[in-house]
Design the sequence.
């Protein structure tokens, strides 16, 4: 099905509305609750505040009520700052009274295991239908509505619109609020243990707030992939980008290692496949997260990848050219009219090109710089970048830098082109200048690497929305039916017969006993391949269970004896042999596999095949179900695609047939969703254009009797 969801989001949005934008707040507990109350007052909250403490009369100038039942109102939100045991009863009372929701600060729940898990279950039961943030978290800050349920210091200020942050780490969230990159947060939410509310719940509420232009996320994992996927789709529909820093890139150990596919998958790879499917932008660093959010906040999604780069240094121009290529940004030349106009402005030794080193010949001449920048930005490019590092010394010459900045702002106002000012060293763009640029609609970028990544991400996002809206939603979780037998490998003959039913092309072949070898070889036609056939022979090359290029009956018989001797050294015997016509003349070898993941379900893996699978590691993963465009895109993203296109005068491969074969494997997997453990077609030999593909080896591992 296409990437669409039910647009009725009022349930969760309204459910969290009272909590995230309250007009009355109860702070419950001692020291930590008082700290949170102080932060809320500092944020400028102008609603009703109530303090709850069993023995104190006052807290930060507010009367204390002995318990929740004594409160004169039902609060929209509550900050619960008591020990973990007391937290459960406080939450129960808040829920029974109909409170809008609460933040639970206490730790010692599921994160400690043992009795902590049991306590968290009690906490969830006590909350009932009431929204609950945490436990084991700082809480949240709502900058647009001047509200904080958060005990510790935080940065930022009241704003009208900006970007939101959802974090599975309290400290990281706190640190990001204090960034010196002019990222304007509307909301910062710490998820804690996610006992009741998870990232998808917060996303749903934030997506209903028109003041939120993008959402950043720091993630360690997702418990509910389906809910996240639905919200990511809604974000696409609303054109609200999601930018994620997901930690945990190290590959988890596979449950099974009988196939090559298992070596190419892992939790992080599947997370990346999920983000790719949903148009979620993934960054590698917190700086990258901040810069990308800033671009979406100030500039919005980019209409394309064509940029003009302006600098007065050849070195800066070279760095820009390299980074543009790395991130898929393009620097097309100026138009003829732009080129002529620019040459008239400069002395003969200046070369007009893009990236453009405008040289120091006009430096200090504000009007000349304005004309230069205006000419350069008066074209068909999608954005312009000025490299600018502000001096840290006090000197009269600093005024010339300000003139350059003024000239660029003026050019932006004249042309209307999206404009970015990027410093090479992140700290060389002070706050006052950043704020001035933002006010003028120019996006300040701190660091060329992070900045160009962010700019490219904004262009990629817009392109993704336009091109991939019909991609189907993934199907998650593939639980093995209760009572199913342990997974078992089918022999190669069975594998190929089963896969052929779904359209996969396999070599002409026969399954024969030793006594039938001579006759079978003549029937198949030479050259042939001889293999030991049986469930035990998953890796034939390692066991010496395969012989290639046999061209006579004598070769066949000798190969059979050699195979029997080789496998006997491993304690195995051969009951039957698989005879197949040998496929020759291939352009490239692929691996096409399916791997089961407890959380993600069945994943499709495409990569460079043959014996070098693990060594090269050239692969792409797709979540199921998938479609033809996605498969083709993944295939052509591989290094092996160079061979498929035709390399050094050799013929191009039959790419269409390769895509057909991959889709047939995907179809087999979807029809065996509950019983398939793993599948491995390696290699899938791609023949020259028009000649098709052939799966010369296959492994299928199934649960039960399927």
Sequence:
């Amino acid at each position: 099905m296409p990437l669409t969801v039910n647009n009725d989001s009022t349930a969760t949005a309204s459910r969290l509305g009272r909590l995230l934008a309250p007009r009355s707040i109860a702070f419950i507990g001692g020291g930590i609750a008082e700290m949170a109350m102080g932060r809320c007052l500092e944020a400028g909250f102008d609603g009703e505040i109530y303090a709850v403490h069993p023995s104190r009369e006052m807290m930060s100038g507010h009367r204390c009520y002995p318990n929740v039942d004594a409160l004169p109102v039902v609060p929209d939100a509550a900050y619960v700052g008591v020990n973990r045991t007391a937290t459960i009863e406080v939450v129960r009372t808040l829920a029974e009274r109909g409170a809008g929701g609460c933040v639970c600060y206490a730790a010692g729940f599921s994160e400690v295991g043992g009795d902590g898990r049991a306590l968290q279950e009690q906490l969830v039961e006590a909350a009932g239908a009431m929204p609950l943030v945490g436990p084991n978290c700082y809480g949240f800050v709502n900058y647009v509505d001047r509200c904080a349920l958060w005990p510790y210091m935080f940065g930022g200020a009241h704003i009208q619109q900006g970007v939101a942050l959802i974090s599975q780490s309290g400290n990281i969230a706190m640190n990001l609020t204090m960034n010196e990159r002019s990222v304007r947060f509307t909301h910062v939410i710490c998820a804690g243990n996610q006992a009741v509310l998870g990232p998808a719940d917060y996303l749903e509420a934030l997506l209903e707030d028109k003041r939120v232009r993008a959402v950043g996320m720091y993630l360690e994992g997702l418990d509910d992939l389906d809910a996240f996927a639905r919200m990511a789709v809604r974000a696409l529909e609303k054109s609200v980008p999601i930018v994620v820093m997901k930690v945990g890139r190290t590959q988890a150990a596979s449950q099974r290692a009988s196939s090559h596919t298992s070596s190419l998958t892992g939790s992080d790879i599947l997370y990346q496949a999920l983000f790719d499917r949903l148009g979620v932008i993934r960054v590698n660093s917190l700086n990258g997260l901040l810069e990308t959010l800033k671009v979406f906040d100030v500039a919005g999604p980019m209409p394309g990848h064509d940029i003009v780069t302006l600098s007065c240094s050849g070195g800066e121009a070279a760095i820009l050219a390299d980074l543009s290529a790395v991130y898929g940004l393009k620097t097309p030349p100026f138009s003829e009219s732009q080129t002529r106009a620019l040459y008239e402005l400069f002395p003969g030794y200046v070369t007009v090109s893009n990236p453009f080193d405008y040289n120091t010949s006009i430096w200090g001449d504000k009007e000349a710089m304005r004309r230069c920048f205006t000419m350069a930005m008066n074209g068909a490019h999608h954005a312009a970048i000025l490299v600018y590092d502000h001096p840290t010394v006090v000197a009269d010459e600093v005024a010339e830098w300000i003139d350059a900045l003024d000239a660029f702002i003026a050019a932006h106002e004249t042309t209307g082109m999206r404009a970015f000012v990027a410093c090479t060293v992140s700290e060389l763009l002070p706050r006052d200048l950043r704020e001035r640029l933002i006010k003028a609609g120019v996006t300040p970028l701190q660091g060329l690497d992070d900045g160009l990544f962010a700019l490219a991400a904004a262009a990629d996002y817009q392109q993704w929305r336009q091109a991939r809206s019909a991609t189907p939603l993934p199907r998650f979780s593939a639980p093995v039916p209760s009572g199913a037998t342990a997974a078992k490998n089918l022999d190669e003959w069975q594998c190929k017969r089963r896969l052929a039913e779904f359209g996969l092309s396999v070599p002409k072949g026969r399954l024969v006993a030793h006594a039938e070898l001579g006759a079978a070889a003549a029937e198949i036609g030479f050259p042939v391949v001889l293999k030991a056939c049986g469930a035990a022979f998953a890796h034939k090359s390692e066991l010496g269970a395969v012989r290639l290029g046999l061209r006579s009956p004598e070769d066949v018989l000798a190969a059979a004896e050699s195979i029997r001797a080789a496998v006997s050294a491993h304690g195995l015997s051969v009951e039957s042999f698989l005879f197949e016509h040998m496929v020759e003349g291939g352009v490239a070898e692929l691996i096409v596999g399916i791997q089961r993941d407890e959380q993600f379900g069945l994943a499709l893996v495409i990569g460079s095949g043959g014996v070098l699978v693990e060594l090269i590691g050239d692969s792409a993963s797709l979540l199921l179900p998938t479609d033809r465009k996605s498969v083709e895109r993944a295939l052509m993203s591989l290094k092996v695609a160079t061979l498929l296109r035709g390399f050094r005068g050799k013929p191009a491969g039959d790419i269409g047939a390769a895509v057909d074969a991959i889709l047939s494997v995907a179809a087999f997997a979807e029809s065996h969703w509950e019983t398939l453990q793993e599948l491995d077609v390696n290699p899938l030999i791609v023949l020259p254009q028009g000649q098709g593909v052939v799966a010369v080896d296959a492994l299928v591992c199934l649960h039960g009797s399927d």
Notes: Residues 448-467 form the longest helix (20 residues). The longest strand covers residues 676-686. The chain has four domains: 10-247, 301-445, 508-581, 588-702.
